[in-house]
Amino acid sequence: MNGHRLGVDVGGTNTDAVILDEKDDPIAKTKTPTTENISSGILDAVDEVIDQSGVSVGDLTYVMLGTTHATNAITERRGLNEVGMIRLGAPATESIRPLLEWPDDLAAAIGNNTAILDGGHEFDGRQLNEFDEEQVRDCVRSFDHVDAFAVASVFSPVRDDHEQRVLKIIREEVGPDVPVSLSSEIGSVGILERENATAMNAALTSVAAEAANAFIEAMDERDIDAQLFFGQNDGTLMAVDYALEYPIFTVASGPSNSVRGAAYLSGIENGIIVDVGGTTTDIGALTDGFPRESSVAVEIGDVKTNFRMPDLIALGIGGGSIVEQRDDESVTVGPESVGYRLTDEALCFGGSKLTATDLEAAAGTVDIGETTPDVDGDTVSAAREYIRTKIERAVDRMKTSPEPVPVIVVGGGSILVPDDLEGATQVYKPDHYEVANAVGVAIAQVSGEIDRIYSLDDQSRDEAMDDAKSEAIGNAIEAGSAEDSVEIIDIEEVPLSYLPGNAVRIKVKAAGDLDH
Amino acid sequence: MTERITEKTLGDYATGAAVLGTGGGGDPYVGELMAKQAIEEHGPVDLIDPRDVPTDALIVPSAMLGAPTVMVEKIPRGTESIASFEALETHLGEEAFATMSIEAGGLNSTVPIAVAAALDLPLVDADGMGRAFPEMQMVTLTLGGISATPTSVADEKGNSVFIDTENNRRAEQFTRTTSIEMGGACMIATYAHMGAQLQEHAILDSMSLARNIGETLRTAISRGADPVAELLELTDGFELFGGKVIDVERRTEGGFAIGTATIDGFGPYDGRTLQLEFQNENLVAQDSDLGIVASTPDLITVLDAETGQPVTTEGLMYGQRVRVAGMPCSEKWRTDAGLNLVGPQQFDYDIDYEPIEIIHNHERT
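Predict the joint structure of the above. Result:
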């Protein structure tokens, strides 16, 4: 027997794991508390599912990990690299220096080493300024003790050759082992946001290595000799060496895994996913089986970034949310939450806090805890109505048209969501809904993408599109997808206003299955 | 009265500028950061009352002209605005008393703050639009017979061009063409004028109004107040509509982002829809029951229903809960000459302009 997959999702509260058989059906699942030392939490979860399934470790072909490690490192300013930040564009762009709008403590955490050097391009690919090799070399030498480099060149989404030349010089100066992040490989047009994302990526490479090593060690400890992958925020997978280079793409991979898992478990390709956890509910859109991307700049750790991120609304409502009665008789739920202390503090577990879970226990929709909490009926219905309205509004905001759509509810707190919602054709709670994120990462495909500005003056639109598609497919194959299964999963075409030369920005993403 | 523009108050100017930008005007974020760095390096900027400007003092407005897409990628050097400014002073043979924003809405409201800081000049509390419009000739200074040219244009590489044209519309065309050669965006010093002309033909107190708007929106919720109601009180405006965005249709034509947003009413607007026509800026609002409830040059701004934060035309999306505010424009725009420059027909809408307060008093009786 062969071809089993192990999916692990390390969240803030729980570490979930599933084992899928060779037909990709879940045959074992668990939720265990996330531990301070993540590898012991991973081991607990892995041991549990291996035990449950009876599968021998030799049968595991692929192991996939979803983690919030990178996100937490940014918000907690923990374990970040000191970064040498090089921008090419001088004399343009000098009026706003790199990291200007970063919170002081975050800028300090990555060392505040920045330089604006000659180079960069115009929107149409003309050179903005001569590249000065000696200047770059001197700059690289001048940065003391940096652990990683980040490079952003003006209009590098149009032409990345100056970023590539800096990479080459850094390699010559400091050797092959120091991580270098290039902005053209991370974000899109909008240099400040792209540069921010690139600097964060560079800051995260050690943290990513730590997570990857914990993962690898945990697998070694159990003699699991499978190919390892990380879940990324577009709902696809990346190989470990790629994750080490682009850790920023693991940010928000948790909700993306849930979206993919919900699609897989329900068999629905288009709809809205509601993922209810202990503290928050993430609401995302499922478009042709994948999470829809956000079209606006997303803030991470109070810094604006523009790399691809799932389009999400996070509500401060979860199973542990505290229900509060106001003086005017109105009732609110969250954002305060008892979080992982639910089993100590909720009324139904003998605690003293009225939580969202208690509402369902009192209403008799679920049998949970030790006692049935004594809550008056008006409070229960007002609080449940409050939750319903919040979720209905968020679902509506995620839609792109007024037509009702399927709504798929997953996550440990799914009991909070009513079986009917305004704007929903139907509310689905698929089997294994509580571990949808671990299922999502386990079944994920491998992707490749391209995001570039083409001038249609010297080539036709079709030629430009074909070029973008074949490059995206090539990138997907390079990342590990089986050649015959690769498909184009997303195309976006944006004409650029005010620009001559018939410029158009084309984004194409391709994804394919891993070989079984 | 002189107030000082500091790093602390910059955010309020930018938010207010987004409201006065009526959905367009470019992202004020880049301008805000340029101003932030300039103030950090050179110190705060004095915002002076236009009535205190001597009648024979020279005012030189400063602005950025070009494609918003370029401006978010190839950010200015900072010195090109100084170069264009000083070149115009040299050309005119006179030192400027102050600089000024040519438009109070969007990006160009904050860019001159950086120029003022770097040159250690005051900024006049006034502008040439009282809002945002897409083209250079669309300023009240044009109505006052003030020439846009000589306009001094500069880029970050040290290239500069003087433009002298037969009229202000031609100034727009030549400057736009030059900006493309300069990489899609450039800095200009333009519409040089005297204190007496300023007091008669510019829109006064618009920068402090922007700051007031920003401050009001920032603090209203913490004061338990309704941000939109406070905005309307501040600007003598009207709530035009409240509802949910149910459709946004967009296309690009002649360099404009043109489109229509449809908003489905809730609360007092239940059962009605609002059609919002935009070309970069919001230009016409039409209620399904009442007909046109506001049009250019009056200001139409979409705000998030919960937070009161302004929503740009690019940011309009299905499902947003919004309130739409209409605010009267300057009387200067309501003349025949003003409407010939920026009235609905100048943007190809076949409707006659009616001042917003007249439309709404009609509605009440």
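Residues 37 and 214 of chain A are 9 Å apart (CA to CA).
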